[in-house]
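re: ur msg from earlier - yeah i can do the S-adenosylmethionine complex, just paste it... oh wait u already did. ok heres what im feeding in:
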Amino acid sequence: MKKNISKHDLAVRWLIREHQYIKHQKQTGDIPEGNIVSLIEEVNLSMGSYFLAHAEDESWLGRKFICENKSGRQSWPSVLSDINLLGPFNSASLEGNHVTFSYIAPSSRRRSIFFQSLLTDPMGEVDFCFIRDFDGALPSGDKFWQVDHLSAERMAREERHFQIHTELSLKVLKTQGVIFDPACSSGDFLASLANKLPNFNYIGSDISPKMIEFARERHKERPISFSIGDAMSSRQRCDILILRFLNDEVMQIGSAALAFKHLIDLLNPGGIAFVFGHTPVLVPITDLASELGFEVIKNTASSLDKCSIFQFYMLRKHP
Ligand SMILES: C[S@@+](CC[C@H](N)C(=O)[O-])C[C@H]1O[C@@H](n2cnc3c(N)ncnc32)[C@H](O)[C@@H]1O
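and the outut:
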């Protein structure tokens, strides 16, 4: 049962927990290979930090942690590298409001080999399943999504890897059609695609009137149609669907699954859906995709230097 805690208190406790985790990992150093290691976490705080990475018939437990970027801002990056891989998964069990995770300590050589297989296995996947299993999503609420030019630019920088991969994939897969972003926020994601791929028709909507006002003003020179609307009731048919809001800190788990099922139905035959986000994707995409008759083309993508990976689902509706 979740306690009623204010967002501010949660954020402070979460920050403290992240710093404790980093300190603990540094102090523990290299645990001998084969030892079972346990970590105890509060459901209310850290379920979105843990993931399972699947590749070549192995499943490893992994954990994200807070990092400082070049400008000294602390954030929780969407990209993962081998340092986020803890070891082969052993167990996860719930007791009260705490989950005990355990894994088998690997050697650093085994860790790099597994990371390489994640990069090369075409069906390699990073799944933040514990947030669903233990109901640990933390939606931010409407007031969180305020935007100004500075924060829009920061968010666009943080989404650059998603934009590059969407653009590269579209160059190979499609040459024209309607691209729809049903939770377009500042509109920057669509605008960056529109700059590079001018043959598509761009449509963005968002539930927040302020966000749409901002996007319209910011991109008034660009051929993008923006409108206010709840993605859950959208009837916009499209050839390309950009789903970058079915994520922790944006939605509840149940709403994310409902939104996914509703939106994916709006794709024309042969259409492509991209699913990703700055925070973990809440929907079990591969399971739902096969249930709904979609082909999964990709689960993850890697950075151009092959040092990091991130969730990046690409699905195709049968023609
Ligand atoms: C796209 S997501 C986050 C994307 C990006 N990483 C960021 O940090 O802004 C946030 C947006 O989703 C919008 N949103 C949330 N629920 C929605 C819904 N049911 N329908 C349409 N837009 C929604 C919010 O208003 C907000 O603008």
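cool cool. The longest helix spans residues 7-28. ping me if u need the other ligands too
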